[in-house]
Specification:
One of its GO terms (cellular component) is cytoplasm. By secondary structure, this protein is of the alpha/beta class. It has one domain: 3-Layer(aba) Sandwich (Rossmann fold), CATH 3.40.50.720. 41% of the residues lie in helices and 16% in strands. It has 14 helices and 14 strands. The strands form 4 sheets. A 7-stranded parallel beta sheet has the order 3-2-1-4-5-7-11, sandwiched between helices. A 3-stranded mixed beta sheet has the order 8-10-12. Strands 6-14 form a two-stranded parallel sheet. Helix 3 runs parallel beside helix 4 and helix 4 runs parallel beside helix 6. The longest helix has 21 residues. The protein starts with a strand and ends in a 5-residue tail after the last helix. The protein binds NADP nicotinamide-adenine-dinucleotide phosphate. The site of NADP nicotinamide-adenine-dinucleotide phosphate has 25 residues, from helix 1 and strand 8.
């Protein structure tokens, strides 16, 4: 029988790109999508995907759909605890969700670390225990914790895996959102600031990954799950307390990102000078309505190594580098503003 796959968030940047890749690689899989709204565009793109109308607050719909699936890909919202609890309620198959670990995320980092290179590079193999114990104020952590708890309590029945992309770049392939967050948010902040910028020395480093490399990790994980359903053998190194996957293809220092972005935006006539400027902590704090988002997006370190995918799933990033597609990412946002930072800020803190 064809494996039954349930996917959430498949009109979004990551979920939409994952759905496109899975249906292309495995047209025989029986895929069901939970959507807030079923558009004609979606049905035309995926005539064989069954759709169920529901949102992340529709706990019974999520729980029922998950219970009738072999594999659940939750790619929509890494902050919504209710949705994750519902998906885990009767889950008998494999669970995936998407999240990220950001070292020194803006909510908890001391100001003297902004713009300074941290020597710490996280590994999804060597640092499993520490990641499982990260404090609740880390981004996405409350929902990640639910997955760790489910793995600990029900690991014999539910195999979980959490995919932790850092900032993702490149054009997505979904029927809805095709742009990521980082470049559009930086673009908007640069327009408001009138130049590209960095904080302090601008030496904070960011792991980065192209959307196609995130997607290839998801496809490998789903294939691993299908294999274990077929054979009845679960590889302990891939799931549960070990089921953490960083997906990193490159690392860049923020000042270099700012210099390249400033150069492109100046050449497009969007700002006067290509030179990035140094910002103070107060200037950073005032961005995005004083939300602190700018520290998390542009001022902190997020350094990780994708050891697990490489070692146990044969994952290897192959997509173009950040600088190769930066101009296209900038132009995509310039021509079609899909990301609205105000809507993102309004939604933060409203998750149940
Ligand atoms: N993009 C990145 O760089 C990145 C990196 C690391 C982690 N992440 C995390 O990964 C997750 C997905 O990111 P993304 O970039 O793919 O986001 P996205 O493009 O905004 O997609 C979000 C998806 O979730 C759906 N959705 C949102 N709220 C919903 C609700 N209340 N009920 C049902 N569906 C809902 C959206 O459906 P509609 O079409 O109905 O709006 C859409 O399909 C997020 O939690 C994000 O923080 C993203």
């Amino acid at each position: 029988m064809a494996p039954r796959i349930l996917i959430t968030g498949s009109t979004g940047y990551i979920g939409g790109s994952v759905l496109a890749a899975i249906t292309r690689a495995h047209p025989g899989y029986a895929v069901t999508a939970i959507l807030r709204k079923v558009s004609q565009n979606y049905v035309d793109a995926y005539p064989r995907v069954k759709t169920i109308v529901g949102d992340y607050d529709s706990a019974d719909i999520l729980a029922d759909a998950a219970s009738q699936s072999d594999i659940v890909i939750h790619a929509g919202d890494s902050e919504h605890k209710g949705a994750m609890k519902a998906l885990l309620r009767h889950c008998v198959g494999k669970m995936r969700k998407v999240g990220e670990v950001d070292e020194e995320s803006g909510r908890s980092a001391p100001t003297e670390t902004f713009g300074v290179l941290s020597p710490r590079v996280w590994s999804d193999v060597d640092d499993v225990e520490e990641i499982a114990r990260l404090p609740e104020d880390r981004i996405h952590r409350p929902v990640d914790k639910l997955v760790f708890e489910a793995a600990a309590a029900h690991g014999a029945h539910i195999q979980t895996a959490i995919v932790f992309p850092p900032h993702v770049y490149g054009r997505g392939h979904g029927p809805g959102i095709t742009q990521s967050y980082m470049v559009p948010f930086f673009y908007d902040a640069i327009i408001a600031h009138k130049s590209a910028f960095y904080i302090a020395k601008g030496e904070n480093a960011r792991s980065l990954v192209h959307i196609e490399d995130v997607v290839s990790l998801y496809v490998s994980l789903v294939e691993e799950a299908v294999k274990s359903l077929d054979t009845g053998t679960v590889r302990d190194e891939c799931w549960g307390k070990n089921g953490l996957y960083f997906t990193v293809s490159t690392e860049l220092v923020w000042k270099d990102i700012a210099a390249a972005t400033g150069k492109i935006m100046a050449s497009l006539g969007l700002i006067d000078s290509a030179e990035p400027t140094e910002c103070t902590v107060d200037e950073f704090r005032s961005m995005f309505g004083g939300s602190g988002l700018s520290f998390h997006m542009f001022g902190t370190n997020s350094r990780s190594r994708a050891d697990r995918g490489r070692s146990f799933l044969g994952w290897k990033p192959k997509a173009p580098g950040f600088f190769e597609v930066l101009e296209a990412d900038i132009l995509d946002h310039h021509n079609d503003e899909q990301r609205d930072v105000k809507a993102v800020l309004a939604s933060l803190g409203k998750k149940k």
